[in-house]
């Protein structure tokens, strides 16, 4: 039991490290697009940032965070990963959408600084936290399940 808990803790630390790196990727792409070609479309820019970060996340999580897990062939695993990540993308942009279009924290209703702080807090703090919790649980549950002695790594599970 103690070995399982420490393994889970190690997975969480690796997952959080990948998350920190992809947080930077997401925000770099988001702000680059939001301040240039997608200036009037912050939720679209955020979605593209999340998509780029998701691709990076798959590679890093597969090869590092959950490398000791298996149970699915790669195409099945990738399909599950991107399905879980699609739900996470929606979860992530909902707080930004609410901040901008329901609460009205956008120009001209507020100044530029207020808009940008609200965007960051709703899109990159609250949205990311909610999506991260969903992804960690779903990845461990469906995408990278534990292999059992009767299920060799890479084999399909029933």
From TrEMBL:
Compartments in which it is found: Membrane
GO terms under cellular component: plasma membrane
Keyword Lipid biosynthesis among UniProt keywords: no
GO biological process entries: polysaccharide biosynthetic process
Keywords: Membrane, Transmembrane, Transmembrane helix
InterPro entries in the record: GtrA_CellWall_Glycosyl, GtrA_DPMS_TM
Pfam family, one: GtrA_DPMS_TM
Main location per the UniProt record: membrane
Superkingdom, natural source: Bacteria
Stretches assigned to the GtrA/DPMS transmembrane domain: 14-144
Membrane-topology annotation of the record: Multi-pass membrane protein
Transmembrane segments: 12-32, 44-60, 80-98, 118-137
Signal peptide: none
Similarity comment: Belongs to the GtrA family.
Protein name: Putative membrane protein
